[in-house]
């Protein structure tokens, strides 16, 4: 029996987030320049997007470029942006075929003009697609996102548009980049590193975490299926006991 056929369609996570890590180490291990690892990583993106859409995942969020990534060598940053522009053009047929809507979160205004224009074009082309939402986190940092949310809420309080006692989880959620998306159920990180790296810190409060040693350029559909099967073997309690979960399911 193949992995995909073992997956229960009734327990697929609604929102999967992925930290795509290991491109540089993949290239180094093969004696190649780091940028070639990033280029190879595009194949892993395509397979992951298709696998998620096939299983009925509602939202897939990929950590494509963090606010800290600007610190990398200029040639690597320039190459990453070039890959972004080219891959967006090339993946339009895949997005359309799978009825996938593309959107992006992060400080997008700081992206190079060509990357911004291409991103907006593909978002416009796919805006009516409704099978799955693919979100690219670009120039994204969770701390920056939360600081911006606090500033926005504070301004509303100062302008008497919001009372301080009204602030709750829903208010905070509504001021985050991800306000249109369901909460994150499942976070995958490749390459063996076991940290969150400033990614969706608020949104993953109750997410299941999955770490794999596979380097991102080698990640394929079968690896995504294996991750989902691992998710389905877990018990999601949200602070309750196992007995409470069992009784609520009877």
Walk me through this protein's architecture.
The protein has a six-stranded parallel beta sheet with strand order 3-4-2-1-5-6, sandwiched between helices. Helix 2 (23-29) crosses helix 3 and helix 3 packs parallel to helix 4 (74-90). The relative contact order is 0.18. With 250 residues, it is α/β, with parallel strands linked by helices. The chain is built from ten helices and six strands. Helix 6 links the parallel strand 3 and strand 4 (132-140). It is globular, with a radius of gyration of 19 Å.
Low-confidence stretches: none
Whole-Å distance between the termini? Answer: 30 Å
Structure summary, number of beta strands: 6
Helix content: 40-55%
Topology (elements, then pairings):
Elements (H helix, E strand, L loop, with lengths): L2 H4 L8 E5 L3 H7 L4 H22 L3 E8 L7 H17 L1 H6 L2 E6 L7 H13 L6 E9 L1 H17 L10 H5 L12 E4 L18 E4 L9 H12 L9 H7 L2
Parallel strand pairs: 1-2, 1-5, 2-4, 3-4, 5-6
Helix pairs in contact: 2-3, 3-4, 4-6
Short description:
The protein contains ten helices and six strands.
Question: Keyphrases for this structure?
Answer:
44% helix, single chain, globular, 250 residues
């Amino acid at each position: 029996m193949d992995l995909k056929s073992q997956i229960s369609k009734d327990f697929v996570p609604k929102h999967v987030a992925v930290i795509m890590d290991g491109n540089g180490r993949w290239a180094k291990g093969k004696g190649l320049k780091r940028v070639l690892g990033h280029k190879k990583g595009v194949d892993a993106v395509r397979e992951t997007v298709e696998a998620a859409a096939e299983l009925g995942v509602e939202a897939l969020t990929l950590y494509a470029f963090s606010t800290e990534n600007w610190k990398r060598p200029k040639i690597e940053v320039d190459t990453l942006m070039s890959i972004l522009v080219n891959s967006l053009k090339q993946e339009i047929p895949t997005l359309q075929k799978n009825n996938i809507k593309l959107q992006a979160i992060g400080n997008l205004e700081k992206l190079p003009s060509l990357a911004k224009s291409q991103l907006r074009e593909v978002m416009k082309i796919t805006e009516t697609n409704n099978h799955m939402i693919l979100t690219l986190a670009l120039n994204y940092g969770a701390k920056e996102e939360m600081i911006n949310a606090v500033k926005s809420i504070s301004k509303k309080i100062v302008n008497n548009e919001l009372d301080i006692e009204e602030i709750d989880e829903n208010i905070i959620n509504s001021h985050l980049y991800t306000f249109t998306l369901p909460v994150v159920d499942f976070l995958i990180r490749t390459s063996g590193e076991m940290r969150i790296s400033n990614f969706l810190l608020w949104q993953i409060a109750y997410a299941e975490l999955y770490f794999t040693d596979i380097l991102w350029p080698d990640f394929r559909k079968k690896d995504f299926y294996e991750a989902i099967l691992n998710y389905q073997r877990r018990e999601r309690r949200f602070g309750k006991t196992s007995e409470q979960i069992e009784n609520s399911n009877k």
